[in-house]
From TrEMBL, chains A, B:
<dbReference type="GO" id="GO:0003700">
    <property type="term" value="F:DNA-binding transcription factor activity"/>
</dbReference>
<dbReference type="InterPro" id="IPR050109">
    <property type="entry name" value="HTH-type_TetR-like_transc_reg"/>
</dbReference>
<dbReference type="InterPro" id="IPR009057">
    <property type="entry name" value="Homeodomain-like_sf"/>
</dbReference>
<dbReference type="InterPro" id="IPR041642">
    <property type="entry name" value="KstR_C"/>
</dbReference>
<feature type="region of interest" description="Disordered">
    <location>
        <begin position="1"/>
        <end position="40"/>
    </location>
</feature>
<dbReference type="InterPro" id="IPR001647">
    <property type="entry name" value="HTH_TetR"/>
</dbReference>
<keyword id="KW-0238">DNA-binding</keyword>
<dbReference type="Pfam" id="PF00440">
    <property type="entry name" value="TetR_N"/>
</dbReference>
<protein>
    <submittedName>
        <fullName>DNA-binding transcriptional regulator, AcrR family</fullName>
    </submittedName>
</protein>
<dbReference type="Pfam" id="PF17925">
    <property type="entry name" value="TetR_C_20"/>
</dbReference>
<feature type="compositionally biased region" description="Basic residues">
    <location>
        <begin position="31"/>
        <end position="40"/>
    </location>
</feature>
<dbReference type="GO" id="GO:0000976">
    <property type="term" value="F:transcription cis-regulatory region binding"/>
</dbReference>
<feature type="DNA-binding region" description="H-T-H motif">
    <location>
        <begin position="60"/>
        <end position="79"/>
    </location>
</feature>
<feature type="domain" description="HTH tetR-type">
    <location>
        <begin position="37"/>
        <end position="97"/>
    </location>
</feature>
DNA sequence: ACAGAGATTAGAATGTGTTCTAGTTTGCCA
DNA sequence: TGGCAAACTAGAACACATTCTAATCTCTGT
């Protein structure tokens, strides 16, 4: 069977977290009991484990439910769609990157090279689990939700390149430039996962783009 | 039903058209009889028509087959997966853009603004059929194949900004820069389709990026 | 301790991409 | 003209995301 039956669709949006429905949605930003938290965590872990072996395809909802020890219905109560689950997995990855950056902030001299540092660090992190990375990035690009890889990475880039600048403080132009660099990175990563770029090529390209885009940020 | 059942998977690769299987694959680069050509065209048209109303979701393989007046099996003989069909539809769109550019080449003075011209022209073209655009771009980003929106657009940008330069003649750096600009554009387009950017924002962002990236190409 | 609300479960059902089967039609060539 | 290979067709079959159902469990307030 050469085929991929896997489906990637948009996650159930509700862009602004409005619309708190009748019942208590365990995934929502409402209070979560310890056991709910545990359950949610188990699910995400099971999902990540499956995805890192075999990508999204291996991460079948039935299988995830099974591995996490919950019923399919429960899985769907926590994550209304497969995309939502993928997004959650990505969140974890990004948390990892951010804490890595806190522990060991990029120390290069220019804004541009600090940005390169962050992006290449993220790249290496993702390369460790290529299947997972592939699944996550593809899925996220598709997602209707706030795309962590776009927005959070833009924020990170601003922070390291303009020394602590936050998204709210940045000028339009700074946002544009950091955002553009993030776009380039995402696309390059995708190309790498497709086998159409080597790590070195990515690095060169990121460096070139960063040097131009963040020259004077 | 708020859900999207639609599947977007990778198109059946065979990246270099190698592996000419036993039978004559109508999709391949082999000779095509007139009737096969007609049939293929009818299929792509039917697919595009469906996608422009309702996106990929509306473009169901059964429906496409029906509208094109072929059996489901035949559809799958021409396009081994839904992705392949989507890619074919995109090809048509890009042909359109390229011929538009031939008819009326961008006349701005600087390489950077000629590039902006091309990108914004493409943007407007895609905006005319947002559903179709959404379907196409999302799908293409996922595709394992040579991504038309990346590579062909990069080629186009080089051509207009460095006056007739082709991909083969370009230096690595030129390729990097034009490629990065194409990446930015693709991502911006996606954001627009998600409703997170206006046309004006895109234009500003493209202009900013282009000015930096293509300043001296 | 008990009632009621919400959470959970097992499993059936549905929808759509993809594959498979068996038979029919078409085009070509000896 | 007869026959064969490839193309085509209708439709069944299969896989997996998602939804639905009915029953059971768990907690919380009284």
């Amino acid at each position: 069977m050469r085929t991929s039956h896997a489906s990637i669709a948009a996650p159930s949006s509700d862009p602004e977290g409005t619309m708190e429905t009748h019942s208590t949605p365990p995934g929502g930003h409402s209070v979560r009991t310890r056991s709910q938290h545990q359950r949610r965590k188990r699910i995400v872990q099971a999902a990540a484990a499956l995805a890192s072996r075999g990508g999204v395809e291996a991460m079948q909802m039935r299988t995830v439910a099974e591995r996490a020890g919950v019923a399919l219905g429960t899985l769907y109560r926590y994550f209304p769609s497969k995309m939502d689950l993928v997004v959650a997995v990505v969140g974890e990855e990004l948390d990892l990157l951010e804490s890595s950056i806190e522990r060991r902030p990029p120390s290069a001299a220019t804004p541009s090279s600090r940005a390169v540092d962050v992006l290449m660090r993220a790249t290496r992190g993702l390369m460790r689990e290529p299947e997972l990375a592939d699944a996550l990035i593809r899925s996220l690009i598709m997602a209707e939700v706030q795309t962590p890889f776009g927005d959070r990475m833009t924020g990170l880039l601003l922070r390291v390149s303009a020394d602590g600048l936050t998204i709210d403080q940045a000028t339009e132009e700074q946002l544009d430039l950091a955002g553009s660099l993030a776009s380039v990175w995402v696309q390059e990563l995708l190309e790498m996962l497709r086998g159409r770029r080597t790590y070195d090529q990515i690095q060169r390209r990121i460096e070139t783009a960063s040097a131009r885009l963040l020259a004077d940020v």
